[in-house]
């Protein structure tokens, strides 16, 4: 039976660090503040917003919501971003994506000041992930994966790591973060030949394929660490990951559950970035 890498344990430790940073800011008269910009009423955005707002309240971070209609003009949204860029009381900004199709997402994303980009929306922030420079912040989900590895004392140095998925949201930045931890990294994707055999060579696998249960028993072996980023809804209407948990869990050494794994850490990472952004202004 695999060890469960539970997100709640990681979150509890992370929250204590965040509270300390918030207190340090408040002692200097700075109240860490997150601005949430939401266009429209996408249910998943609304759900994440509720979770982020609640976590902010728990950790002492202020939260301002800017809610815009689905048909908002690009000029109006850019004006909102310009306003939060110039507002010294706002330290971090979360803009929900994807945006409605009538908006130029690339232009809007890169209008945000990198120092307030707490979920790696801008090209500048992403360059920081790849260069190792402190420009903006890394994406929250791959950062949550790293927090889990760190919390459970999983040393990546010299280990073979496979990342399944090559998106800029999770796959590519996760690979860069693993390289920074001195792992030897392979990125797998839809054109990878014989992916199961590649995955079986790994010591650590991060799965961000975006398909429910795509990673089965043939992908794994004894002794591996599996981090499942996927959040899907199965035929029974239950949340599940990109890993076939029932098939994989009896084989590997440790695995994150879904729900209760990476997702539960991500929101704290976001709030932690806001606190860190505030500390950088001191």
Molecular structure report:
- The protein has 282 residues and is an alpha/beta fold.
- A 6-stranded parallel sheet has the order 1-11-8-7-5-6. The chain has a 3-stranded parallel sheet with strand order 3-2-4, with helices on both faces. A two-stranded antiparallel ribbon has the order 9-10.
- The chain has helices at 7-27, 43-59, 74-86, 105-109, 123-131, 140-151, 171-180, 195-200, 245-248, 262-280, and strands spanning 3-4, 33-39, 62-68, 92-95, 160-164, 184-188, 204-207, 225-228, 232-233, 239-240, 254-255.
- The protein has 2 domains: 29-119, Rossmann fold (3-Layer(aba) Sandwich); 140-263, Rossmann fold (3-Layer(aba) Sandwich), CATH 3.40.50.720.
Annotate the secondary structure layout.
Layout: E1 3-4, H1 7-27, E2 33-39, H2 43-59, E3 62-68, H3 74-86, E4 92-95, H4 105-109, H5 123-131, H6 140-151, E5 160-164, H7 171-180, E6 184-188, H8 195-200, E7 204-207, E8 225-228, E9 232-233, E10 239-240, H9 245-248, E11 254-255, H10 262-280
Parallel strand pairs: 1-11, 2-3, 2-4, 5-6, 5-7, 7-8, 8-11
Antiparallel strand pairs: 9-10
Low-confidence stretches: none
Structural category = alpha/beta
Integer-rounded radius of gyration: 19 Å
The succession of helices and strands, N to C, reads EHEHEHEHHHEHEHEEEEHEH
What's the pLDDT, averaged over the residues? 97
Helical segment count? 10
Q: Strand count, sense and closure of the main sheet?
A: 6 strands, parallel
| Number of structural units classed as domains | 2
Chain oligomer state: single chain
Sheet with the most strands: spatial strand order? 1-11-8-7-5-6
- Can you identify the CATH superfamily of the largest domain? NAD(P)-binding Rossmann-like Domain
Basic shape: globular
* Secondary-structure arrangement, i.e. CATH architecture of the largest domain: 3-Layer(aba) Sandwich
Relative helix content: 40-55%
Q: What name is given to the CATH topology of the largest domain?
A: Rossmann fold
For the record, the CATH class of the largest domain is: Alpha Beta
Indicate the proportion of strand residues.
15-25%
